[in-house]
Amino acid sequence: MIDATGRIVLPGFVDTHRHTWQTAFRGIGADWTFAEYRVAMHGTLKPHYRPEDIYLGNLLGRLEALHSGVTTMLDWFHAAQSPEHSDAALAGLRDAPARSIFCLGGEFGSPDPVDGELRRIRDGVPDGGLVTMALGLRGPLLTTVDVVAADLKVAAELGLRASVHVGSGGANGSRPIAEFHDNGLLRETTTFVHANGIDDDELLMLADAGSSVSISPDVELKMGFGWPMTGRMLAAGVRPTFSIDDCPSAGGDMFATMRTAYVVQRGLDGSLNSRDLLEFATVDGARACGLSARTGSLTPGKDADVILLRADDPTVFPVTDPAGTIVAAGHPGLVDTVLVAGRVVKRDGRLVGVDLPALQARLLESRNRIAAAAGIALDGTWRPPTESE
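-> structure tokens emitted (389 positions)
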């Protein structure tokens, strides 16, 4: 029995896209452009990541998300430099008491399908557990349509959903959804990440296919992807979902993500209300992850993925409209209790059974070693050089 007096009870949040391995460099990219982010994380820092670094980033990143009320999270892993790196990422998720989807991304730019590695890892990740699996597609912007088709075929054979980045990083003007559609590759089981700037007819293609979309408003706005597609998706009949994307550039909690999406869309056209945002961050996210039968709402028969927020905290008291309060003024400090599959994993504001100081000390050692190997400063002065410079 849990005393919920003075608490707001709601389903745990669902983050549909996060590059968790980058946790050690939280905040370093707050001022970066997308070009700088690619040079920094993929070109400069990633080559120095050992499997142990991947493990710590995924474990501490997943614990941070859980601490802020994210009970379900899709880890979009694109640092698979070796089988050992992939195994370490999966181990980090498994060692966190949370519901996670390990989304294995293919090595960007490679002409080869991800067949072998995907099958190897899939053999050890059965359905039904807290940690499940998905495929991270490279998409037609990063490889050929034939490779995309081959990857989707393997994913379907293995019973996996897929996620793919489109419409970001200067891709506006291309028609990625139309390319999927024209090649018969649009699936209900695919989530399109960002999708900024896609055309109106492509929105209808997504709606007709039943595909889902993951919107990362903070990263999209600050890195120049374009306006978040929240309102346009909803108008076209697509239920948006939310994601953090990367913590070097953005905060890792769903409260800030909802608020950014909300105020931007209200500023653009006055649409959306607080309950819309809560649905995007819970039940719609669960549906996009293929987990709507297990989580996303407080419904008899589903797993108990539940969070309790402090309604007596001075920053929100008195709570008159719970939904409005959460979206307009919510923050991670309100998360008092978290349950995942009926297990209490956070109580009285503290994670249960986690030695955070020891893990944090290891993560600091990892960050400092990588930074030293890459020859970068950690005082906020480093700006990655880009081609334009």
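The chain has a mean pLDDT of 94.
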